[in-house]
UniProtKB/TrEMBL annotation:
The keyword Transferase applies. InterPro entries: Aminotransferase_I/II_large (IPR004839), AspAT/PAT-like (IPR050596), PyrdxlP-dep_Trfase (IPR015424), PyrdxlP-dep_Trfase_major (IPR015421), PyrdxlP-dep_Trfase_small (IPR015422). Residues 33-382 form the Aminotransferase class I/classII large domain. Belongs to the class-I pyridoxal-phosphate-dependent aminotransferase family. Keywords: Aminotransferase, Pyridoxal phosphate, Transferase. This is aspartate transaminase.
Length: 389
């Protein structure tokens, strides 16, 4: 008997971009002092006050089945947060609580793509995007951006990728892996393209609290976009709750009603004590979110300082998120070769740009996810390694 083509073909022909990460973890397990600048995992873990709330909720008995759409209390809190930050009227009926942002991405594409439809997404991209699209039976269509234009999507590139089968477009700002924050002009061009071709827009906004330059604009807030936009949110990055697996989709009421049916047949909701902790965390407000984001703001400044006076590496404007995208083409190495050499010679693990699509070939992604002193040491050694090539 054979497994389904859908499940065996999720990652296409490659390793889904995780080869360097897996190698680094094996080296670390063997006792080598590898400094990991690979995945978006906070070095400061979930705050104790959130864990205390989670424990109290579980101890108080909220361990049975929770409401599949999410508790009313958390859905109302998320809706209020979105309305306050975007100015777009948002109610509980616009919100579905999901087991993290990844589950929300899968559900969103399930909502808007039939098998055989095509779904566009921006390249460079988070490594799971094409597999998520394949997982719902749709065909992934990458839209390449350009390093020379700071990876801001261009209308011509969107138009070039369009086929009659395309039914949706997914974007991510602040962006993983590039750290780029899409400008208002870029977002207006994207939303104009979606309206022109009657496409659903899926907006992954899990880094919306990590803005270093510019502003975060949700495309749902732009003219005539509320009824064609599905917004993905998560507690993972904003509140360092990656392992708690709690996210959401904000979408038109009809979309949410059908996604509740999907959740009933798939995830069956999120643990109640997790939701109580998420509600509590969101209620701590902007100051708390800025505290969680502060280490990445500091490390970005460390990197910018260290880069002065050298020309082996170019920093893509990092307006947000916990990553830096570095153009290392002046070294003559591919991103994969650079990352392999850096790991073998310096015991520093970064992600090759090729892990995130063709557009970021000749680049590397650096996650700013180790303590400041270790980060400064690792980044200085990275620059020295690049200069010697």
């Amino acid at each position: 008997m054979d497994l389904s083509k859908r499940i065996t073909g999720l990652t296409g022909d490659g390793d889904d971009g995780w080869g360097i990460f897996i190698k680094a973890r094996r080296m670390k397990a063997a006792g080598k002092p590898v400094l990991e600048l690979t995945i978006g995992e906070h070095d400061d873990r979930t705050e104790q006050i959130i864990l205390d709330k989670m424990h109290a909720s579980a101890s108080g008995g909220h361990t049975g089945y929770a409401m599949v759409p999410g508790t009313d209390a958390l859905r109302e809190t998320v809706a209020k947060r979105i309305e306050e930050r975007t100015g777009v009227p948002t109610s509980i009926d616009n919100i579905l609580i999901t087991p993290g942002g990844q589950s929300a991405l899968f559900a969103a594409h399930s909502a808007v793509c039939d098998p055989g439809d095509a779904a566009m997404y921006i390249d460079p991209y988070y490594a799971t995007y094409p597999g998520t699209i394949r997982g719902v039976g749709a065909v992934p269509v990458p839209v390449q951006t350009r390093s020379s234009l700071d990876f801001q999507p261009q209308v011509d590139d969107l138009e070039a990728g369009l086929t009659p089968q395309v039914n949706s477009l997914m974007i991510n700002s602040p962006n993983n892996p590039t750290g780029v924050v899409y400008s208002r002009e870029t977002l207006e061009n994207i939303t104009g393209f979606a309206k022109k071709h009657d496409l659903w827009l899926i907006s992954d906004e899990v880094y919306d609290t990590q803005i270093w330059e510019g502003e975060h604009i949700s495309p749902r807030a732009l003219p005539d976009m509320k009824d064609r936009t599905l917004v993905i949110g998560s507690m993972s990055k904003s509140h360092a709750m990656t392992g708690s697996r709690c996210g959401w989709i904000c979408a038109p009421e009809g979309v949410i009603a059908n996604l509740i049916t999907l959740a009933t047949h798939t995830t069956y909701g999120v643990a109640g004590f997790i939701q109580d902790a998420a509600k509590f965390a969101l209620e701590q407000g902007v100051d708390f979110e800025e505290k969680v984001a502060a280490p990445f703001r500091r490390r970005r400044e460390i990197a910018k300082r260290l880069m002065k006076g050298q020309n082996a590496v170019k920093l893509i404007p990092a307006g947000g998120a916990m990553y830096l995208m570095l153009d290392i083409r002046a070294t003559g190495l591919s991103g994969e070769d650079f990352a392999e050499g850096l790991l073998d010679q310096e015991l520093i693990a970064v992600m090759p740009g090729e892990s995130f699509g063709a557009a970021s070939s000749g680049h590397i992604r650096v996650a700013m996810t180790i303590p400041d002193d270790q980060f400064e040491d690792a980044f200085a050694r990275l620059l020295k390694y690049a200069a010697e090539k």
